[in-house]
Amino acid sequence: MLIGEGIVMDYIIFHYRRNNVNVVFRYLALSHPENGSLELSMLQSMLESFFSIFVVVAVCSGKGVIVGDIISDNELFITDIGFGHSAKPNMMFAANVFPFDKFYMTSGAVLPIPGSLFKEKIDSIIDKFYKDDNELTPNQEAAFAAQVIRAALQDGVIAKMKYIDV
User: Do the bridges between strand 75-79 and strand 50-60 make them parallel or antiparallel, or are there none, so unpaired?
Assistant: First the structure.
């Protein structure tokens, strides 16, 4: 799968809604995982996912990153071995993340946000959706994610990305 395809697939899984529910919700409703199972825990966590713009505060070598959520102004730890090897402080990115007890995970599809892109386009997209410090509905969050993704793709960030084995 190409990097750009992963971004689009991620959007479809978490944000595209049919009859007002996303793919994760439909899968959970149809699969009936056992209570207490890892599958149920993962799916429930994925239902709590959210899309945001993050800035790396600190890198925990080989473990992940501590990030600031630009939208909520919260700080959180994202477990990601790759980020623990490749991230740099002040690096900005957009992603879906989902919570566990003491950490967060990305959905796997992460978009780098260069500072120039943030200043030129992303900052105004944030202002458009979060002007009143309100919490977005799922449909508003989907529109926000779509506009951020579109701006990043138009900026050519995908061409600058590569996956590395760690």
Answer: unpaired
